[in-house]
Amino acid sequence: MNNVLTLVLGGGAGTRLFPLTKYRAKPAVPLAGKYRLIDVAISNCINSNFKKIFVLTQYLSASLNRHVSQSYAFDQFEEGFVDILAAEQRAEDTSWFQGTADAVRKHWMTLDNFDCDKILILPGDALYRMDFRAMLQHHEETGAEITIGVNVTPQRNAHHFGLLALDGSGQITTFKEKPKTREEQAGLEAPEAILNRFGIASKSEEVFLASMGVYLINRDVLHHYMMETDHMDFGKQIIPESIKQRKVQAFVHDGYWEDIGTIDAFYKSHMDFLKDVPPFRFADPAAPIFTRQRFLPVSRFKGAQMDQSVVADGCNIGRAVIQKCVIGLRSVIGDHTTIERSVVMGSDFYDPAPLPPWQKRGTTSIPLGIGKYCHIRGAILDKNVRIGDNVRILNEKKVENADGEFYHIREGIVIIPKNAIIPPGTII
């Protein structure tokens, strides 16, 4: 599809995903044992044969840039590419990205050199599978100037998204960006016909139509907003204004969709992944999710008991009990350790390794990974953690939110941040 240029937005700080975003951009957060969030957006493009892709980055972008450059290289004889467009200061404008639209505007001189008549704008932090060719066909058949990918969301999550209403032809008539109160959301409840399409049997919980942050825009329309307005954001300014002046259609996506915007959503998506029939398959033969090839050895097990769990490559697992967990690359788990309903991201490297710079020379180094006789439940362990023997991470007091010396609790989920060192015998 050479007439479509794709932009994947990856510049936000991702504060609601802290501490997973303490050292990395949100699209670079590890996912499902071996992937990164950015892999979903790029894989959807590749599977749709949309192969002219720019990733716009700004916040803590080093690991994201490295992952993209190491993972996606097309044949030199085809026109496809996945390139990074990093935020940069210029003589006429020394500010950083001020919003989603401003990120596109600051690179418009580069984008304007490409021969395309439509531009697809995607979030870099959502989990879904979509064939963008179907969206393009819908866009052209309806004569739309802008088409927005739409899914459903329950009322409890409605304040996180742009909510909208449709007429009988699927044209968007109303759009409100992240309305916080029930009064602001009134009148935007999804009609029965839409609920039936999504297979939702009853209205026991109110459901809304939500923007997925997926926009297909005619080039001349986007050029107008980039060059003739100072709008900084698509959801807050450009989309609401466009609905009043232009033909803005909805493309209803009736598949799985999870916006990975919070710790709870991140954790939930991983627990969904472990269901007997997961709602999202990374290995769909028709449209797989791609990632970096690492050429790691197969994982080793020494008497481990495992149930409803997945284990990535290169792991070394002792006589542990692992129940409903995602175990990431190069994970090391000691004997007699129990891990339940948790996400273990693994490591970027193997021991032996030099002492971390924050660990004083001469002290006893805790090996990389999880030690012996530990008990961990309902937790997220970021990469390169060193957990000593007899550590208990259980949140038995059911704390909702807290910050400790080497841990954080968000929405009742304990997060051990990247590179953390937890002494033997610690109880969290």
Can you characterise this structure?
- This protein is an alpha/beta fold.
- The chain folds into two domains: 270 residues, Spore Coat Polysaccharide Biosynthesis Protein SpsA, Chain A (Alpha-Beta Complex), CATH 3.90.550; 123 residues, UDP N-Acetylglucosamine Acyltransferase, domain 1 (3 Solenoid), CATH 2.160.10.
- It has ten helices and 31 strands.
- Strands 1, 4, 5, 6, 8, 9, 10, 11 and 12 form a nine-stranded mixed β-sheet that branches.
- Strand 9 and strand 10 form a beta hairpin.
Brief summary:
With 428 residues, the chain is α/β, with parallel strands linked by helices. The protein contains ten helices and 31 strands.
Contiguous uncertain segments of 5+ residues:
none
Global mean pLDDT = 89
Principal-axes geometry comes out as: globular
Give the CATH level 1 class of the largest domain.
Answer: Alpha Beta
CATH overall fold name of the largest domain = Spore Coat Polysaccharide Biosynthesis Protein SpsA, Chain A
Q: How many separate domains?
A: 2
Individual helix count: 10
Strand element count: 31
Largest sheet: 9 strands, mixed
CATH superfamily of the largest domain: Spore Coat Polysaccharide Biosynthesis Protein SpsA, Chain A
Question: Structural class of the secondary elements?
Answer: alpha/beta
- Multimeric organization: single chain
Beta-sheet strand percentage? 25-35%
Q: What percentage of residues falls in helices of 4 or more residues?
A: 10-25%
Span between N and C termini? Answer: 52 Å
The CATH architecture category of the largest domain equals: Alpha-Beta Complex
Evaluate the radius of gyration. Answer: 23 Å
